[in-house]
Amino acid sequence: MGAAEPDLYRDTWVRYLGYANEVGESFRALVPVPVVWASYGVATAYVTADAIDKGRRAATAHAQDPAQATRVGVAVVDTFVWQGLASVAIPGFTINRLCAASLALLGTVTRWPLPLRRWATTALGLAAIPLIITPIDRSVDFLMDSSLRKLYGAPGEPPAPH
User: Fold this and answer.
1) Which residues have C-beta within 8 Å of that of residue 139, sequence separation ≥ 6?
2) Rounded CA separation 130/96 (Å)
3) 101, 125 contact by CB (below 8 A)
């Protein structure tokens, strides 16, 4: 029995591209806004590529299955929605609000010069990234299991007949 092939989007350095927008949000106080938006472009490209990859894998795995198109569609939608929430939308919003609040708070409670407050905010945002990943991933799993996945069952499985 051979070892399973590593998933390029989940088991290699490519996975870190999904965190690009969190890094962009951390640096928002220091860089022009188009740089932040570009980081969202990188993260969205990662999410899209992963969804396409999971669709291709489902197509290969279910080549002889009459429900192949449904299985591929479910794999693509499940991956895109999960990654969109867990890798882009929720962590981006979380880091954005954390950095905005910390910059405002530092302005209120310290006499630090603005450049120092901006760098401190950026450092806080970067430091928070590893801390938010697991709780967000688990929350998105719960959300998906409690909603969308009830419509179509497990990822890659066709919807149950009603």
Assistant:
1) 90
2) 15
3) no
- Buried (b) or exposed (e) across 24-35, using 16+ Cβ within 10 A? bbbbbbeeeeee
pLDDT digits (tens, 9 = 90+) for 3-53: 678 888 888 899 889 999 999 999 999 999 999 999 999 999 999 999 999
Tokens found for residue 133: 């990943």
What tokens does 24 get?
A: 């962009």
pLDDT tens, residue by residue, 89-118: 999 999 999 999 999 999 999 999 999 999
pTM for this prediction: 0.87
The first and second tokens of residue 6, run together, are: 């590593």
End-to-end Cα, the chain, rounded Å = 38
Q: How far is CA 39 from CA 7, 25, 87, 119, 151, in A?
A: 23, 8, 12, 18, 32
Rounded to a whole number of angstroms, the CA Rg of the chain reads 19
